[in-house]
Amino acid sequence: MASPSGKGARAPEAPGCGPRPLAADLVDSVDDAEGLYVAVERCPLCNTTRRRLTCAKCVQNGDFVYFDGRDRERFIDKKERLSQLKSKQEEFQKEVLKAMEGKWVTDQLRWKIMSCKMRIEQLKQTICKGNEEMKKKSEGTRPDRCGSVSWLGIAL
């Protein structure tokens, strides 16, 4: 018959070397469905008598800490803090995306303004060239009252 530790049954003691434990005592000392057993102690979290260092209920609830004193924060508290940090991170990411969207719109408008300025400059150059050509053609004809000929009446 196997023991809860998985090492097999103990060898029977020699006659007269002490009383053998009764089967009922062994059954009472073993908690069913608790896994491997370390020592007969009380759970430091819920104070129930178990053979393990922490009982399964406390572990399932996340109510455990490092026992060597490294960190006194319970696992469930860490988990809650992690979820809060994740939600804050999500909020910051949304704010960054919103700011980036505004910057993108600004960049698009700047690009449109720059292209319009370039188009205006090209149109001004075209008008100047047209005025010069008209001036050259009209040199042989009569000049305006001002002495210059303007193309379409636009003087720059």
TrEMBL record:
Say which domain of life the source belongs to: Eukaryota
Tell me which InterPro entries the record gives. UV_resistance/autophagy_Atg14 (IPR018791)
Q: Which UniProt keywords apply?
A: Coiled coil
The keyword Coiled coil is assigned to this record: yes
Give GO BP annotations, semicolon-separated: autophagosome assembly; autophagosome membrane docking; cellular response to starvation; mitophagy
- What is one cellular component GO term in this UniProt entry? extrinsic component of omegasome membrane
Signal peptide positions on this chain = none
UniProt keyword Coiled coil, yes or no: yes
Q: Name one GO molecular function term.
A: phosphatidylinositol 3-kinase regulator activity
Q: Which PANTHER family match?
A: BECLIN 1-ASSOCIATED AUTOPHAGY-RELATED KEY REGULATOR (PTHR13664:SF0)
> Protein name, please?
Autophagy related 14
Q: Which organism is it from?
A: Phyllostomus discolor (pale spear-nosed bat)
* Lineage start: Eukaryota, Metazoa, Chordata, Craniata, Vertebrata
